[in-house]
Design goal:
By secondary structure, the protein is mostly beta strands. Helix content is 11%, strand content 52%. Strands 1, 2, 3, 4, 5, 6, 7, 8, 9, 10, 11 and 12 form a twelve-stranded mixed beta sheet that branches.
Length: 355
């Protein structure tokens, strides 16, 4: 339809032209309102997002990372929550997944499917800085064990299987800080699986006991990786309300904690004596000495947004992201934890219960 106004040549022509404009404007307004309504109506589904080039960001409340050495050989499609799927074909090397930034020691749960033709890994994967460390908790792998050729440093039993511990070094290779030389820490599961709970603190503690110290947490994802291979995966990742090792003992009263102070209370007689340890710009250590009992449970309640990064000399479980339950692991009554500040320096509260 030609909507350009024509010269008036007869009686009433002006009104016909104006009517056409009013009708046209009304139509445009109606279309605009419909478009806006489609954007704001509750319950409207968001389309999945597919990435094929290197990128990081957030998607539906989760951090994501996609890295591929050669573009066009792999893709990741991200759905609701922690769900993502990948496809790769004769890929040189790629790593993709969803998780958190920064990572922490809270247990991680995941489920889904994973199909590999060649050299592939399914792992909880992350980085730290100062020192620069790339780490893998490998739950499944293809026709190549990623620890092949490395010296075994020990093992840890967690979440229904034994994981073998290794360290390797990468020289002048891609990293989150550009081309660099750095160590990789490995925990490789003997009984392969696709899905379950990963009690992250068990692995951080095991690496530390083997002399492999992590730095400041960077990102952490439940990752699909392919190297000279083809395959696909469909994974949903989330935080767990607790791990599969250790248990929480209830009862007792929570005492208050002050810097260099003590706290006690509980269903028996014991006291958790807390003192300051080393401090850095982004984290600090607390040293804990339990007295009054050799069979105890100490509950640590973290003030958000602070979280526990790592622990030593205890059996640790995490009923929630902001709570640590500590029990003896045979190393005595002296133990400690590293707290990630996240902008806060308020000490957590401690309560001790003897059994």
């Amino acid at each position: 339809m030609n909507t350009t106004p024509q010269p008036e040549t007869r009686s009433g022509g002006r009104f016909r032209v104006l009517s056409r404009f009013r009708l046209l404007i009304s139509s445009f307004c109606t279309i605009a309102l419909v478009a806006v309504a489609a954007l704001v109506l509750p319950g409207t589904a968001n389309a999945d997002t597919t990435v094929t080039s290197n990128s990081t960001g957030t998607n539906n409340g989760y951090f994501y990372s996609f890295w591929s050495q050669n573009s066009g050989q792999a893709s990741m499609t991200m759905g609701s929550g922690g769900q993502y799927s990948t496809q790769w074909n004769n890929v040189t090397n790629f790593v993709a997944g969803k998780g958190w930034n920064p990572g922490n020691t809270a247990p991680v749960t995941y489920s889904g499917s994973w199909n590999c033709n060649g050299n592939c890994y399914l792992s909880l994967y992350g980085w730290t800085t100062n020192p620069l460390i790339e780490y893998y908790i490998v739950d499944n792998y293809g026709n190549y064990n990623p620890s092949s050729g490395s010296s075994r440093l020990g093992s840890v039993t967690s979440d229904g299987s034994t994981y073998d511990l290794y360290r390797t070094q990468r020289v002048n290779q891609p990293s989150i800080e550009g081309t660099a030389t750095f160590y990789q820490y490995w925990a490789v599961r003997q009984a392969k699986r696709t899905g379950g709970t990963i009690t992250v603190s068990n692995f951080f503690n095991a690496w530390a006991q083997a002399g492999l110290n992590l730095g400041t947490p960077n990102y952490q994802i439940l990752a699909t990786e392919g190297y000279g291979s083809s395959g696909s995966s469909n994974i949903t990742v989330g935080s767990s309300s607790g791990g599969t090792t250790g248990s929480t003992t209830t009862g007792g009263t929570t005492g208050s904690t002050t810097n260099g102070g003590t706290t006690g209370g509980g269903g028996g007689s014991c006291t958790a004596n807390v003192t300051a340890g080393d401090q850095w710009s982004d984290r600090y250590n607390l040293n804990v000495s339990v007295s009054g009992s050799s069979n105890w449970t100490v509950t640590v309640n973290m003030p958000a947004p602070e979280v526990v990064m790592s622990t030593w000399n205890i059996s640790a479980s995490y009923p929630s992201q902001y709570q640590l339950v500590a029990k003896p692991n045979g190393s005595g009554n002296n133990w400690g934890l590293t707290v990630q500040k996240n902008g806060s320096t308020t000490w957590p509260s401690f309560s001790c219960s003897a059994s």
